[in-house]
Amino acid sequence: MTKPNPFRYFKTSREIIRLAVMLYVRFPLSLRNVEGLLHERGIDVSHEAVRYRWHRFGPMFASEIPKRRIEGMKSSRWRWHLDEMFVKINGEQRYLWRAVDHEGEVLESFVTKTRDKKAALKFLKKAMRKHCCAEVFVTDLLRSYGAALKEIGTARRQESGRWLNNRAENSHLPFRRREREMLRFRRMRSLQKFAAVHASVYNHFNQERRLSTRTNFKLNRAAALAEWRGFGAA
């Protein structure tokens, strides 16, 4: 049975849809910024069309991004950095829990109303279902992590300290810049959806520029872009 074409009901070409979604998710641009950039290229698409296409195709493209190093993760050889962000939704404070590996790749994002032991436990279980268990969990001094890891039975793998978790703290910056351009979120569901898609797209295009030569960086960047252009192919 052939896979149905996800673009079959859209007059806009799939190349333009991929470009619009990439611009909106990858870069700190508003919907109207994306509309303006597309107009510069001679593409007449409204900002509402960009919004609809991001909601329709963003999760689909993100699900096709290869989960790099997943097989390695299951061998429990990896070091995870865990941290939570404060996010305002309609004036109410919510928490975005994020797990980052030792190379800066975002492993998991999870939104909760609280940051107690129960929330930390749900976050850790969700991450472990996908990536198995890490060798070391690096956290800040929040007690919820210790209580949750103790219940799971991995408390001895925890490392906590004031400056140990800078890897996770720095990984928040791209999302924070993106959040400001979106003028915050209105629902937890929207935050969870965007955080998951943004993490996948960020991982796909993050080439660790400082760790490679200019030549290798250009090759890796071109390969990532070529792979993106193949997402959603029928």
β-strand percent reads 5-15%
Specify the helix fraction band: 40-55%
| pLDDT averaged over residues | 88
- Spans of 5+ residues with little confidence (pLDDT < 50)? none
Biggest sheet, spatial arrangement of strands: 3-2-1-4-5
Note the main sheet.
5 strands, mixed
CATH class of one domain: Alpha Beta
Order of SSEs: HHHHEEEHEHEHHH
Judging from the principal axes of the Cα atoms, what is the shape?
globular
Would you count the extended β strands for me? 5
Count of alpha/pi helices: 9
Gross CATH architecture of one domain? 2-Layer Sandwich
Look up the CATH topology of one domain: Nucleotidyltransferase, domain 5
GO molecular function: DNA binding
Keywords: DNA recombination, DNA-binding, Transposition
Protein name: DDE domain-containing protein
InterPro entries: DDE_dom, IS_Transposase, Transpos_IS6
